[in-house]
Amino acid sequence: MTGMLISLAVVLVLAILLLIFRIQTLVKVMKGDYQDTVKPSNGYHALGLVIFMVIGFALFFWYSSVASHHYLPKAVSEHGVKTDLMFWVTMSILCFAFIVTNIFLFAFAYKYQYKKDNKALFYPDNHKLEIVWTVIPAIVMAILVFYGWKEWSEITKEAPKDAVVVEIMGKQFAWQVRYPGKDNSFGAYHFTKIDASNEFGLDFSDKSSYDDFIPSELYIPKGKPVLLRIRARDVLHSVFAPHFRLKMDAVPGMPTKFWFTPTKTTAQIREELGNPDFNYEIACTEVCGRGHFAMRFVIKVVEEAEYEEWYKTQKTFVEMNQEYVLSKATSDELKKLVMPQPNNEPPTLLIKSDSIMNISQVDSLTKKI
Amino acid sequence: MELAHSTSAHHHHTEHDHDHDHEELSFIQKWIFSEDHKVIAKQYLFMGILWAIFGGGMSLLFRLQLGFPNAKLDWLQPLLGDWIKEGKLDPEFYLALVTMHGTIMVFFVLTAGLSGTFSNFLIPLQIGARDMASGFLNMLSFWFFALSSAIMMVSIFIETGPASGGWVIYPPLSALPQAVGGSGLGMTMWLTSMAFFIVSSLLGGINYITTIINLRTKGMSFFRMPLTMWAFFITAIIGLLSFPVLFAAALLLIFDRSFGTSFFLADIYIGGEALQHTGGSPILFQHLFWFLGHPEVYIVLLPALGITSEIIATNSRKPIFGYKAMILSMLAIAFLSFIVWAHHMFVTGMNPFLGTIFMFLTLIIAVPSAVKAFNYITTLWRGNIIFTPAMLFSIGLVSFFISGGLTGIILGNSAADIQLHDTYFVVAHFHLVMGSASFFGMVAGVYHWFPKMFGRMLDETLGYIHFWISFVGIYMVFFPLHYIGIAGFPRRYYSFTGFDFTKSFTDLNTFVSIAAIITFAAQFIFVFNFIYSIFKGRRAPSNPWKSNTLEWTTPINPEHGNWPGEIPTVYRWAYDYSKPGASEDFIPQNIPYSETKESNFENEVDPIESKH
Ligand code: HEM
Ligand SMILES: [Cu+2]
Ligand SMILES: [Cu+2]
For chain B, how many helices (H) and strands (E)? Predict the structure, then answer.
């Protein structure tokens, strides 16, 4: 019913508009056919352009300042601070060009609007001018390229040797991270080994995988370089950690990487922002299907000591999935690691989190068995 | 057809030229399977407008979702059926909408609708030819486009939904029906449709190129051609070189999808099983796609710039400033457009050294672009400007081109692009520089050449209203997106409630959506004006804008063959506006120097054998 009324009203309004339009056209026709003199309204449009420009610039400055705390999340990585600086330096140059060229455009439109007795200037070219305004942008571009190139090579150079290495894997629709564990060496993986329990496709014939662990948050120490080894197992995803100015695609079949150095712990930034609930986040920025907009993962930046502590207390994948590992274990070594006890209790691991052995210890142990 | 005799270069004999007028064509030959370039142009235009309404309408649906995330959308159920669940848009359908919107706008509206309309309409008229080199291929070109359109349209209504991996259709997402519903039948139809679209573009492009090379009338040397001709010519060449690469990419993707090959797929575990594909590279697809994709943005933009050059010169009553520089910069842009593609791929894991190279090449392309903007502005300087609706839209275009182009400089910087890639900053950038600028070029072209197309005038008042709402509206829609982008809001997101860092800007998003609705609604003023004026507009004079180019020397309603008598000979360039000494402020290209003694510069004399 209301729908009917609304559509009726719309039709009525349209009909009235149409009528007005028709009358207006007829009046114009009465006043004479299409005349080739320029109408007085010509000046209104010239003025309109200038007014638009002035209001537009005013809005631009006003909004840019009132909203600045919204669109300027502070960078908390070493390279991020530098690229932010570069962004704003470049942006200032661009804003300058934006303002000046638009002013010329609209001001000329206004100033040189049609006047009856004027004649336009026949001015087909001016080589000197053209060379000047080819060379100036070229120089500015050269400077910007140089600046960008410097930052880019800094960001993309090899990660320092002492970097903390974490693997992050994207799948529909979540992120997961894996740490190499005590031995500091990631176990091999293969996509054919993936199943509902073994999301990373860990390959247990590689002993390095025994102590890998898969926590539910990305823990990283402040002030140390962190290297993310990035991969995907189904479609493209992209790791985006906005606060760290970090983005890199996750590609099935082609591992990628990105390294950075966090400069503020989660606790510090919470205090700084006065927001006890603040979290660093990872989002996905490569469209990956239905849940693309919801691939949230939290990054916790902590002091180095706290990180070491945390690292030590993590349970390994093998430890948390003993039965599974046993069911998959083909090598005798692994079987022995997760063998049921003689008294038929469920399998217990030799590798216990409270008494982590390194691989060589495990090796020698398994050899003995 | 009768046109065979007129396909040799520099023909100016009269004997056969009257034949066209007397030939009776059936309705079908005349309006449907027509080989007349003017009719084909109108077919492209109508189709382009229909698609624009459709593609633009889709953007409103997702703007509703983004601007009013809590709104109940049950009232859309009659329109969208199962895509609305419990008053909410389905997230996969959101992606499908974004994908279709992008595909439609870029390919169907601003490639076919823009180039198809104006290259077809203007090339023969402005170079002085009776028709395209091959009317038949030209007709085929349109009907391949129609076929392509039909397939794409049907795909929107199928059960699993249309393609939904973004207009760039990156595999593996686009290759695996398990990954998203739209990658099933919808994607197959997308690929089929685009294959036909490419055929259509190539047939059209070949025709534009041969026509311009071979059929210019006597005296129409390359450097006397209006800039529109240069723009269309260069655009066609870009298309001819780049579309086949998309075709190859699409073909390989079809193989991967249907025949088990692994060009783009490797090491995939999805839907509970590991697939057999190994050794392929998703990155390879991106290289192939953007090898077309980047030139494509110039395919979209250059014709609009060409149209603008013509309109700004005419309505400033001045020669375009730096005619040769304009041509050179278009050539430079065309060349460079082929070697900047990987700026879309800085963070794909591509070798960082490539990133450096592509940053360098990308920032070079800013130079010829800047030259073009400066030349437009200088053309206004000391002009005597008449603000026709076409002129206003052209000035709007220049403003968008500047505002949107500048942000490209920051996106082309690989280090800065890390943060901005795939955020709303990119959406803001390309909607201004490519979307809005080209859209304004297209609309400006319609306002300017409507009298030649239909022999009637568009209503000016409605044109002005259309301009002001669109111009202000577009800035209101797309300018704010920069802020949202700098804040890191990713694109192709169904909702921004999931993250802390995207919790802000809800009012701004609402504002943008309202502005989008108003802007879109205003386009119907144009649609009304367009349809109404075809039938009831005031009759057009023969040269309403006092323009120099040849199309205005044809009869008001030119028949197939364009000029009833001899094709005019050209004696001068297209920009003799306000020439010192001349009595009028324009001298059409077909006026010999011998008739304009008072305004000739030194060495402006007619070639000896000009009269026959
Ligand atoms: C009514 C005017 C328009 C509005 C309100 C609009 C709005 C939008 C928005 C908000 C998006 C991003 C959606 C998302 O990422 O979730 C988008 C995407 C896009 N738009 Fe528009 N748009 C308009 C006109 C145009 C035009 C004229 C073009 C022509 C080039 C265009 C081309 C595109 C493309 C290529 C995409 C990207 C699609 C993708 O991500 O795959 N749009 N549009
Ligand atoms: Cu995603
Ligand atoms: Cu590009």
Answer: 18, 4
Confidence of residue A7 (pLDDT cuts 50, 70, 90): confident
What would the mean pLDDT of A37-54 be, rounded to a whole number? 89
Number of C-beta neighbours around residue B434 at 10 A: 24
Q: Strand A218-221 vs strand A297-302: parallel, antiparallel, or unpaired?
A: parallel
Annotate A167-200 with b (16+ C-beta within 10 A) or e (fewer).
bbbbbbbebbbbbbbbbebbbebebebbeeebbb
| Helix %, strand %, coil % of chain B (to 5) | 65, 0, 30
Report the residue count for chain B.
612
Q: How many CB atoms lie within 10 A of CB A358?
A: 13
Q: What is the reported pLDDT for B11?
A: 43
CA pair distance B99, B107, nearest whole angstrom: 12
- If DSSP codes are grouped into helix, strand and coil, which group holds residue B559? coil
Cβ–Cβ below 8 Å for B360 and A73: no
Q: B441 in a domain, yes or no?
A: yes
Looking at residue B42, its pLDDT comes to 95
**Cα separations in angstroms, B63 against B59, B66, B161:** 6, 5, 19
Query: Which sign, positive or negative, has the C-alpha torsion B204, B210, B215, B218?
Result: positive
* pLDDT band (50, 70, 90) for residue A103: very high
Is the pLDDT at B4 greater than 90? The verdict is no
Which pair of structure tokens corresponds to residue B322? 């730096």
CB B98 within 8 A of CB B166: yes
Angle among Cα B479, B475, A247 to the nearest 5 degrees reads 25
**Rounded average pLDDT over B138-151:** 95
Domains held by chain B: number: 1
How many beta carbons lie within 10 A of that of residue A115, not counting itself? 12
Find residue A237's DSSP bridge partners: A250
Sign of CA dihedral B462, B467, B469, B470: positive
State the distance from the centre of ligand 1 to the C-alpha of B164, rounded, in angstroms: 14
Interface of A with B in 238-297 (CB under 8 A): 238, 240, 242-243, 245-249, 251-254, 256, 277-279, 281, 283-294, 296
Q: Is A158 exposed, middle or buried (0-12, 13-18, 19+ CB in 10 A)?
A: exposed
In a domain, B4, yes or no: no
B384–A119 CB contact, under 8 Å: yes
How does residue A335 score in pLDDT terms, banded at 50, 70 and 90? low
CATH of the domain at B416: 1.20.210.10
DSSP states along B394-405 = HHHHHHHHHHHH
| Band of residue A22 on the pLDDT scale cut at 50, 70, 90 | confident
Cα R_g (chain A), whole angstroms: 33
How many whole angstroms separate alpha carbon B591 and alpha carbon B589? 6
Mean pLDDT of chain A: 85
Q: What tokens were used for B162? A: 């249309």
What class has domain A164-365?
mainly beta
The protein residue whose alpha carbon is closest to atom 33 in ligand 1 is: B102
Please say whether the beta carbons of A237 and A288 come within 8 A: yes
- In tens, the pLDDT along A144-186 reads 999 999 999 999 999 999 999 999 999 999 999 999 998 889 9
For residue B215, the enclosing domain spans: 36-267+274-536
CA of residue A279 relative to chain centroid, distance: 16
| Residue B483 falls inside a structural domain | yes
CB B56 near ligand 1, within 6 Å:
yes
Contacting residues for B291 by C-beta, under 8 A, at least 6 apart: B242, B245, B246, B338, B341
For the CA of B512, the nearest atom of ligand 1: 5
Q: How far is the CA of B232 from the centre of ligand 3 (A)?
A: 20
Segment B196-216 shows an average pLDDT of: 95
In a domain, B245, yes or no: yes
